[in-house]
Amino acid sequence: MKVKEVAELVGISVRTLHHYDSIGLLSPEKTTDAGYRIYSEQDLETLQQILFFKELGFPLKKIKEIIESPSFDREEALALHRQMLMDKREQLDQMISTIDKTIKHMKGETQMSNQERFKGFDFSHNPYEQEARELWGDKAVNDSNTKIEKMSKSEQKALGEKFDEIYKELAAIRHLAPDSEAAQKGIKVWFDYLNEIGHYSLDAFKGLGQMYVDDERFTKNIDQYGEGLAVFMRDAMAVFADQNK
Asked: Where is each HTH merR-type domain found (predicted)?
């Protein structure tokens, strides 16, 4: 199958397939004399595997490492995908139920306890934690986790609200040059606040900014506040780290 045919079959863009090829994640086995990519049955199986991992939040870099590992077993991976999706479905079912109960509660049709309001939410697992440990070591992550775990529910809520506030303020100035006075003042607020809940060196801070762009999950979440915010923060954080060493 040619690249356009595969894109239409799967429902992804030709550009995405070209990107997978350029980073060595999925390079078709054959090309025609005219230079057209030809995808084999094996290529389609690999693409399916990639998309399963991507749906479950794995970054492309990590997916490449997994499927290129000599110990990778496709059947075992599919079994893992299935279990993870089952767990995800169970959580989503709980959250849908919580929404239904909340609507009935708002209409006065039923009473809802505070515990029921938050059934289905799960913040115990941080999908970025392993990457953070690999980049910056265990100490910074452990210190942050320990501090957050000791917070009360209201303190954790305030933490989230502060994060939200800082992101919104940075989004408002993302059109400025990363090395401008306003950008550096704003990014210092982010650096100082991160160090209130952990211990981030300037190098760790710069590495975190790079992850905002390298990891699609970070980019997607951050850019909800404004398109291009992740790139702006990366650049501003790099300038801040370099200027303050």
From this structure: 1-69
Alpha helix positions (H), the chain:
3-10, 14-22, 41-55, 60-68, 74-106, 114-117, 129-136, 138-149, 153-172, 181-197, 202-214, 216-222, 229-243
Give CA separation, 102 vs 92, 157, 193, in Å: 15, 20, 34
Rounded Cα gap, residues 81 and 87, in angstroms: 10
- Which amino acid, one-letter code, is at 27? S
Indicate the residue type of 76: E
Question: Which 3 state secondary structure label does DSSP give 224?
Answer: helix
Domain boundaries of the chain, sorted by first residue: 3-68, 74-117, 129-243
* CATH level 3 topology of 3-68: Multidrug-efflux Transporter Regulator; Chain: A; Domain 2 (1.10.1660)
For the domain covering 129-243, report its CATH number: 1.10.490.50
Burial class for 20, CB neighbours closer than 10 Å (0-12, 13-18, 19+)? buried
Q: What percent of the chain has pLDDT over 90?
A: 25
Q: Which residue has the tokens 């370099």?
A: 242
pLDDT in tens, 116-139: 777 666 555 555 555 555 554 555
The more confident residue out of 177 and 121 is 177
Q: What is the dihedral of CA 65, 228, 164, 168, to 10 degrees?
A: 170
CA angle, 222 then 184 then 225, to 5°: 20
Element (H, E) at 30: strand 30-31
Which residue pairs from 120-129 have beta carbons closer than 8 angstroms and sit at least 24 positions apart in sequence? Answer: 120/91, 120/92, 120/93, 120/94, 120/95, 120/96, 121/95, 122/91, 127/57, 127/217, 128/211, 128/215, 128/217, 128/218
